[in-house]
Amino acid sequence: MSDGPYRALPMSRAWKRLAAAIENQNFEPLALRARLRSALLDDWHDDGGAVAGALRKTFRSREGMLFPNADTSDIEALRRVAAPCGVVSLLLDCAAQALAAGKTGEGALIEATKTAFALRCSQGFLQVEEHYLRNAPRAATNVRGRLATATDDGDLTALARTALGLDPRARLRVLRATGLDDGVPI
Fold first, then answer.
1. Per residue in 47-74, pLDDT tens?
2. How many C-beta atoms surround the C-beta of residue 26 within 10 A?
3. For a designed S-S bond to 103, which of 36, 108, 177, 178 qualifies (C-beta 3.0 to 4.6 A apart)?
4. Is the pTM above the cut of 0.85?
């Protein structure tokens, strides 16, 4: 007896929970978005908080500069300090590209973080889809479409603001289903 093809995925538990929800047609797009947010926050909690403060300082300090793209040594120093986490590495790449393009300030940092989250989503989606296509072709009939419904541009912007600590009302909480009533809404 198998618990589903998502059990063998070489991913974190949060991404496995998203893969399980993708396969289950009872999960609506709102529930899928919550699982995706949980998976991204699970990735972010590795090293994201430490890097976010330094990036906020870097982007704010260059706001009034005439040539803000002249020096990227701050980003390279963060790259050496931060662990090789997927989202953090993507964020540092996106931040370096934003600074190289001359973008500064909070808006540019939010856009770079949103882009990093979107890139991490696409990486995770490809991994889930490839696994389903290899190991459970019958279950993979609508994986790509269901994964597409899990993403929302506004949700990624809100997640970026929350992850960077720019939205004081929001909290970084990972979705935990602990009770009997925490399943699919009826």
1. 677 788 888 888 887 776 656 555 677 7
2. 10
3. 108
4. no
How far is the first Cα of the chain from the last one, in angstroms, to the nearest whole number?
27
Residue type, 86: G
Question: Which CA distances in Å does 86 have to 25, 40, 56, 120?
Answer: 29, 10, 19, 7
Cβ atoms within 10 Å of 118's Cβ, excluding its own: 17
Distance CA 127, CA 133 (A): 10
Distance of CA 51 to the CA centre of its chain: 15
Helices 86-100 + 48-61 axis angle, to 10: 10
List b or e across 52-77, with b for residues whose CB sees 16 or more CB atoms inside 10 angstroms: bebbeebbeebeeeeebbeebebbee
